[in-house]
Fold this protein.
Amino acid sequence: MMVEVLRPLGRSFSVLSDFFYLRAQRTFSPRQNMKFWEQLVVTLICCYDWKSSGMSHPKPACRYPPSQWCRSLEIAVECKVQNQCMELNAIKPNQTVPQVSVTLYYESLCPDSRHFITHQLFPTWTMLQDIMSLTLVPYGNAKEMFPANSPFACQHGAPECRGNMIEACIISLTGNSLAVQIIYCMESSTDVLGAAESCLQLYAPSVSWSSVDSCVSGDLGHRLMHDYTVMTRALNPVHSHVPWVTFDGEHTDEMEDKAMSSLFHLVCELYKGVKPPACTGAPVKLSRSGC
């Protein structure tokens, strides 16, 4: 039902529907819950023509969050959005043109990193993931210690070291696409570490929290962080702060200024192929069929 309501918004429907999905999964007071659902019902009544749709009542949601509806044909069929997913695939850019490679070096508890992830990186990736590849490096200004009881020291203390390693393990265990969504969920929460398990369950229900916990407390987590240490130390020029962003392996003050102002426009500018409709603002006419 939600995809039908949001479908006229095009590629951005998943962002809005994810908002409702996330909001519905969190714990609120009875009064807050009542207020939220009142607002949602009013919005649906005002914005959706139920009579012309042929539906007399909302359909139950499928068991996948909206951001995963187009991951496979099986999921699309279960969630009854296969036609929309096929249309979205039909307007993807030419895959022979290299994507813009974006790498973010950041810290899990750095306020500036969190702001960039939630206000610039995730919205841009949501709209432009067809033309950009994203690599997350949760290390930043940390230091690898030899020898020491704790192998890493972090700018914002031990909780940040744990947050960095949790996110490193999530990236390793879930794959890049799901990890971006899980990390956004964490970084946009009031309690980054406290939200980790619920964000994982929301976006990657097949990955157990125990596997992440084992990674953090075991050798894998330390190996991942060591790899990030090597990547961060290899930066040229050397990073002086976080968030630090490279584009196709390069960093300049000009690109950083543009990225902090509007990462979306910078990625569109750097893409060498035909710009997708999201970049140009061109309307997209999708084929429609009905009874």
Observations:
- The radius of gyration is 21 Å.
- The beta strands are 100-106, 132-138, 143-144, 152-153, 244-247.
